[in-house]
Amino acid sequence: MLPPIDQVAEEVHNDWIKTKKAAGITSRLAENGEELMVPFPQLSEAQKNLDRNTVKAVYKAIEAQQQLALDILITTRYTAKANPQRGYHDYETVIEGNVGRLDEFFQRELLRHKQGSMWCSSKFEKTGVVTGKYTIHHGYDSGD
Predict the structure, then answer these.
(1) Do 51 and 40 touch, CB atoms closer than 8 A?
(2) Which terminus of the chain is more solvent-facing, meaning fewer CB atoms within 10 Å of its CB: N or C?
(3) Which residues make beta-bridge pairs with 139?
(4) What is the model's pLDDT at position 123?
(5) Do 50 and 79 have their domain in common?
(6) pLDDT band at 48 (very low <50, low <70, confident <90, very high)
């Protein structure tokens, strides 16, 4: 859970003041003449809302990233071709979800499987208007 907006807005404001002071700036006025380099509680609501809106924008980006992770389902399983007793390992990894978000996950998973497998292939299949799935077949023959 993300911290309360006002708490983070105050921290953002305090950091802004520190940055300005480090640059030798001791006063900064808003367009209406209000002094901005004061503690957050002393700001007008209009000025506090500027910091709040910054935090809300960051929270929106964080929530979008969290939603991105929730919209993707990744499963890996041995295939019927696998024969571990003979040293043949065949896996299938399926990445399903919103088409607009799949590519990022596909590229990451494909790279991961290529690094860990002796062979790797993939295909894309559209499963709905805005959904699809990538199937990655990967494996190795340990020669046992």
Answers:
(1) yes
(2) N
(3) 90, 119
(4) 75
(5) no
(6) very high
Say what percent of the chain tops pLDDT 90: 26
Helices 45-70 and 5-22: crossing angle in degrees, nearest 10, is: 110
- Mention every residue, 6+ apart, whose C-beta is less than 8 A from residue 41: 10
Say whether both 87 and 103 belong to one domain. Answer: yes
Say yes or no: 49 and 81 in one domain.
no
CA–CA dist 109, 115 (Å, integer): 10
Same domain, 39 and 10: yes
Instruction: List, for residues 98-132, the tens digit of each pLDDT value.
Output: 666 677 777 777 676 666 656 667 777 777 666 77
Range of the domain at 36: 5-69
Q: Are strands 88-98 and 119-126 parallel, antiparallel or unpaired?
A: unpaired
Do both 93 and 35 map to the same domain? no
Burial 69-79 (b: 16+ CB within 10 A, else e): eeebeeeeeee
